[in-house]
Amino acid sequence: MHYTCRFLIILIAIALLQGCDQRPAESMLERYSNRVANSLDSDAELNLDIQLQLPAYPRRRERIQPVTDLRQGLIEVLNLRHCQLINLIAERNSSLGKVMPPSRQLVYEIRLIFRLGSCRQSLRMSQTETDPQLLRQVEEIFQIKKINFEAALWNGLFTSEAMERNFSLSEPPLSLTGDNGFSQSRQALLTFNRLAALNNDLTLPQRGWAEPDYLDQLEPHYQALSTLRFGSRWLRSIYLVTYTLNHTASVIEQRLKQRPLCFNKKATPQALIVKNVFNKYYAG
Questions:
Q1: Angle at CA of residue 72, ends 67 and 76, nearest 5°
Q2: Fewer Cβ neighbours under 10 Å: the N or C end of the chain?
Q3: What is the DSSP string of 15-37?
C-alpha cells in the first residue's frame, strides 16, 4: 500500500509537470501573433522554436584594453612608505595578487590612484621641506595611473567573468511575472556607473582624496550579474519581441495590400476583431 501511494504521487507530479508550459514567453507571443493572423484570414503562423541570431559577447582578448605596466625597484617602492602604499603594493605583488580577478584589480587601481593623489597633495602642501625626488616620483606614477585609469576601469568591468555570464547566450527569456533579478542587476549597474564616473572626477580639482566608501561592497554586485544573468534573459526577450513584431507587421501589411480594413473611415467587423486581439493579447 505504501509503495502504491508513492507511485501514484510520482505519476501525478509527472502529469502536472507535463501540463506546465515550459516556454511561457514564446507561447504568449505566438498566441498574440497567430490571433492577429487568424483575424486577418492569414495562415502565416508564428513559430518561435527557432535559432535566434543573438549577438555574442566579444571575446576577452577583443575586450581587454592595454595599460602601461608599472614596475618600481625595491628602493623606489620603499620611498612610497610616505604615501601609505607599501601594504597595497605588497598585496598586489604577492602570489595571490598576481592572479587577482578583474574586480579585485579594479579595487586596487582605484585605491592606488586615490592614495597617490592624496600623497601628491600632501607633499605639495607640506610646510616642511619635501624631498623633490619623492615628489617627482609620486607625480610621475600618478600621471601614468591617471592616463591609464579609464582602461583600468574598462578592464575591471567588461573583462570580468560576471559580465560575460550576464550576457551569455544560454539563458531563456524573462518570465512573464516577477522581478526576474531586475532589481539586483539594476543596482549592480548603477554602482558600476558610479565607478565609471570616477574617471571624470580625476579631471576636476580635488579638495580631498577620500576613497569611495563602497569598494568593499562590489563583489555582491559582480555576483548578482553572474548568477542572475538578467542581461542574457533581457537580450533574448528583446529579440523574441522584435522577431514577433516584425513577423506580425508583415502579416498586417500583406493583408492591407489586398484590401483595407476600414471603409469610409468606418471600422469593419474584421477591423474590430483585430483591435480586440491587439488590446487583449498585445496591450494586455
A1: 145
A2: N
A3: HHHHHS-S-HHHHHHHHHHHHHH
Question: Which cell goes with 1?
Answer: 500500500
Question: How many helices (H) and strands (E) in the chain?
Answer: 12, 2
User: pLDDT tens track of the chain, all 284 residues?
Assistant: 555 555 555 555 554 444 456 889 999 999 999 999 998 889 999 999 888 888 899 999 999 999 987 766 656 776 777 777 888 887 887 777 777 888 888 999 999 899 888 888 888 887 667 678 888 888 888 899 999 999 999 999 999 999 999 999 989 999 999 999 999 999 999 999 999 999 888 877 666 788 888 999 999 999 999 999 999 999 999 999 999 999 999 999 998 898 888 888 888 888 898 889 888 887 87
Encoded amino acid at 234, one letter = W
Residue-range domain boundaries for the chain = 23-53+235-283, 65-158
Q: What is the pTM of this model?
A: 0.80
User: Which residue in 187, 245, 207, 248 sits closest to 40, CA to CA?
Assistant: 248
Of 256, 254, 277, 273, which is closest to residue 35 (Cα–Cα)?
Answer: 277
Contact 2, 9 (CB under 8 A): no
